[in-house]
Amino acid sequence: MRSIIWLIVMFICAGLIYWLLIATYVALFHLLVYAGAVVILLVAAVMFVGGEAL
Q: Which domain, by its residues, includes 30?
């Protein structure tokens, strides 16, 4: 579970870097797709499998 939290932090930081480079559309897309959908799928997988198996 800790690695998923760090993955969320990494995606948010990457989105902030895009935002600082004045690529707001890329930053918004990055945050919505990766920090939203991918992380939710990973959390759901951990919930279904169980924390100890991973």
A: 2-49
Confidence of residue 44 (pLDDT cuts 50, 70, 90): confident
Residue 36 lies in a domain: yes
Full-model pTM: 0.67
Which whole-number Å values give the CA distances from 37 to 11, 17, 33, 52, 54, in the listed order? 12, 20, 5, 23, 20
Tally of domains in the chain:
1
In a domain, 54, yes or no: no
CA gap 49, 31 in Å, rounded: 26
Task: Report how far residue 22's alpha carbon sits from residue 27's, in angstroms, rounded to the nearest whole number.
Answer: 9
